[in-house]
Structures are given as structure tokens and as C-alpha cells.
């Protein structure tokens, strides 16, 4: 059977997973009466809830006698560690762009890597049936993007289709029949070349491992494209590291291939196909699985380094152990090491005390997803403020810079630019009208300056702004950046909060808790209206007297408290504060550092 390997690239929420649903449905991968969940490729609970793709996943469909292997790539830069390696498995890319929003940061990030690998793109202008869609303008923007990224003349001569993933149609013209996705299927068969590896099918077996997984019955699983030769269950293979050193020799226990939404055991892995191999115990991503006679490893894409680190510790608050059942540092360490094994963009290091672990990754969202998964599994954790990882080159200190693209109402452009270029040491790169009373702002801002900015940005723009960010480059250190301006309200007592006490505290600032909630000494219960921290008593009840007069016992009416999400809490805290995470609740608390630790952290930041 002929084979085509293609990756689908898109920015967050541009409709990529919905489009893959339609391709699976219309190619006959599902039975007529089969119950299939919407966005079937989003297998993770968090992916479904947030509408983002976190894990790169592959599927395959059959169309006119040809097997099309489709790889669904993550749509957020924090999960870019998945994307970079995936592109080495495919021979073409399908770039999906929202016809109303145009190319966005993730589009640029992944497309630049695809063009550098020489892959020829197909452009799908999705959501052309939206009232605000401007497909012709979007097409011009895509062309300009390709030109700016150094595309060759052959890559610039790209075909395109107009589509509506939700309604299940794609056509080569706007006035097409709008019936099904056959125009896109046929374009993939015409435009994407068959795998060049088919010419090497008689050579010794070689495969570059690009994604790592685990199965309770099969053990370690490595997925990749077969670069040469064939392999069968029972064959003896070896694993070579990126440097060519031998990692292990193993026997292939099973070979799986993607067939629709499931992986099916097959008798033979052939050159050019994307398969999963089981049987190894040490081999990992970027290793070459090959026949014993092969001596050189296949070239592997380097993985971008982590840009932030967060300290995971045990929950040692007075309320520890009430919600979760996994509270020991040993159990937390095992879980983090397991995560680092399957997610190569994450790095885990032990701290000298042994009860906390420094986890380094791509961004706040990646850390938030890991913590959210752990709390759902029953873990209790204390999380520190994210810290940016610096680099030293030629005696100069470098820090990560991110490209920020913001779409905001014209009325709020002033405050956004002032915050980015003033307090947060950013540089304005571009500012232009984005239609319908909106402005697009592009700026290069240090990663340090963006920690905690998302919530402030949503407040400044009255919830109407859209902020996207992506790693841009390393640049010389730009000096200290001021953190949170407001102080916090700290509980000075242990017990249950009282409505009367909170009512009196409302004039001091915003509260994070309501009445009848457990609090303890050192717990942060609100934000102070001034820049200093203030210890308060949320347990103080109303003094009773024997005097009864009109208006004395009026009802206490509290303003609803501010409830922070996990990511908001992590971004909000300062260096001497922690987020207490349990399966049921997220709390903030003070971490009282000894003077030496406080001095060391201050020196590190500045």
C-alpha cells in the first residue's frame, strides 16, 4: 500500500483536532453506528477541558488505496518539545490557519522548523464561514510569513484549500460544493511525496525514536518512522544514543501501527511507515533503534532547553494530608521522574534537603498541566514561584526573551504598551490595526517580565485582550524587574473564618477566601490595598452586648472572594510565598525564609 506521512500544524484553538475528526469520519475509520467522542484525538481530560492539544499523537486513514499517517501536533509553545521531533517523521505539513485571526505565534514557531527541514506545506484556511473571516487577507499574511521565514521558491508555491472543520467540508475555491473533505484528501495525495525511505527497504533496519510512551503490559514504547529496512517481532535490535554510543541490545516483543484511533499489532514494520516498538528497557527519545550491524546513529533534532524552573515540595502546612493520599517526598519524586522519562522537555533535579525537587520546563502552562495532573492523582504539593533559567556565554549573563503577540481593543493599547515596555523591560516591535476596532501589538519581552502578567493583562483589557507568547531568543540580562506591587493579607490565627471579621477586612483589600473556611497562621487570605504585607485576624467575631437597638444586628453582606486558578496562583506569588495544592483546593501561604536563604535568593534575582 502507498504511504503518505503528514503533520498538521495550527495555533491554539484554530480547529486542528476538529478537522482531524472529520478526516477520520469521512475516510471510514469509524463504523456508521460507532459512538465517538467529539475531538477524538484529545485523549487527555485536561486537553478536553481546555481545548488544547498537549501530547503529539498519530493516527492513520485510508483514501483511495493509500494510507495517510496524520500526526496531530500540540498548539502551544510550552509543549514545543513534542513538535520539533515529530516533524522529522513526516514528508509534508498541513498548515491550518483561522481565516479570521490569521497566522499566530505557534503557527510561526512550528512552520519555521518545518520549512527548515525542507517540507512543502499545504495551507488550509479554516473557519471561512465565520462572519469576521477574511480568507484572501489571511492567505497574503501566510505568504508573507513564509517569505520572512526564508522559504524556498518551491515552498512559496503552496496549494491551499478553504475549509470549515465543524461543518466537514474543504474546497479548492470559495464557491465549491461544500460537501466533504475529498478536495483536501486528494490534495494530500498529489502534493505530499511518498516516503523516500521506501528506496532503503533492503538495507539493515534503522528507526529514530521520536516519542516515548509506556504501557502496563508492554512496558516502554518508542514511536518513530522506519528509515531503512524491516523489522518483525522477535528480531534482535540495539539502541544507539545521539553520540553513537550503545545504550542496550533488546528483543522486539511487539510492533504496533496506527489504524484509526487505535494501535494494532502488525507482523512487519516497513521502511517509511510510522510504528511503535516495544521490548526495550533503557532506550529513549532521540536514540536510534537499529540492526546489530549498524554502527552510526541517525541525526536527531536538538531539543530546545528549558526556560523556567519551579520547586516542587511536600505539603507541610497544618492542613496537610486531609485531601490527598500521596504526600511523601519519595512518592512525589517517583512521579516526577516518571514524567521526565516520557516528557523530554522536562528536567528534574533533587535539592540538598531531599524533600523538594527543582523541575525545569518550557513555561508556566506546561508546569500548570503537570501539577494539575498530579493533584488529580491524589498528590499534595507545595509549589514555589517560577524562576527564569539564565545562561552564561563568554562571561556574559543571558536571559530568555519571548515574542508576545497581543490583539486588544484600541482603547487599551496605551496601558498594555506602557506595562510591557516600561515596568517589564520589553521592546515594541510592531503595532498595526487588526480590524474591527482592534490593534495587534508585537513586542520582545524578557520571560521574567511575563511571569504573573496574564492576570494583570486581563484586568487592564477588561477581559477582551488575547495574549500569545513564544520563545524568541537569548539576550543580555536587562536588569532587575519589579515584581508584584501589592502586599498580602496574612492570617494570624488558626481556625474557621468568620463573616463579620471578613466584612471588616474588605476595606483592606481583595479577599481570596469566604466565610466558614479553614485558615491557619501564615496563610494568605487576600491582597492588601497597599504595598506592604499585613497580618490580620479573620476569626474575630462580633462582641455581644445586652443592648438591643434598631440597626444593631444588620445582616453582613460579603463581596464574593477572588478564586484563583492554579496557573493564576503560581504566577501571583512572590519569592517568599508558596502555593499549597491539594486534590480539592488551592491555597496561598507565606514561606518564612531564614536570613541566609533570603539573601541568596535576592542575589540570584538581581
TrEMBL record:
GTP binds at residues 13-18, 126-129. Belongs to the TRAFAC class translation factor GTPase superfamily. Classic translation factor GTPase family. BipA subfamily. Pfam families: BipA_C, EFG_C, GTP_EFTU, GTP_EFTU_D2. This is Large ribosomal subunit assembly factor BipA. It is found in: Cytoplasm. The lineage of its organism: Bacteria, Pseudomonadati, Pseudomonadota, Alphaproteobacteria, Rhodobacterales. GO terms for cellular component: cytosol; ribonucleoprotein complex. Residues 1-196 form the Tr-type G domain. Keywords: Cytoplasm, GTP-binding, Hydrolase, Nucleotide-binding, Ribosome biogenesis, RNA-binding, rRNA-binding, tRNA-binding. InterPro entries: BipA (IPR006298), BipA_C (IPR048876), BipA_GTP-bd_dom (IPR047041), BipA_II (IPR047042), BipA_III (IPR047043), BipA_V (IPR035651), EFG_III/V (IPR035647), EFG_V-like (IPR000640). It comes from Paracoccus salipaludis. Its EC number is 3.6.5.-. A 50S ribosomal subunit assembly protein with GTPase activity, required for 50S subunit assembly at low temperatures, may also play a role in translation. Binds GTP and analogs. Binds the 70S ribosome between the 30S and 50S subunits, in a similar position as ribosome-bound EF-G; it contacts a number of ribosomal proteins, both rRNAs and the A-site tRNA. SUPFAM superfamilies: EF-G C-terminal domain-like, P-loop containing nucleoside triphosphate hydrolases, Translation proteins. It catalyses: GTP + H2O = GDP + phosphate + H(+). Monomer. The gene is typA. GO terms for molecular function: GTP binding; GTPase activity; guanosine tetraphosphate binding; ribosome binding; rRNA binding; tRNA binding. One of its GO terms (biological process) is ribosomal large subunit assembly.
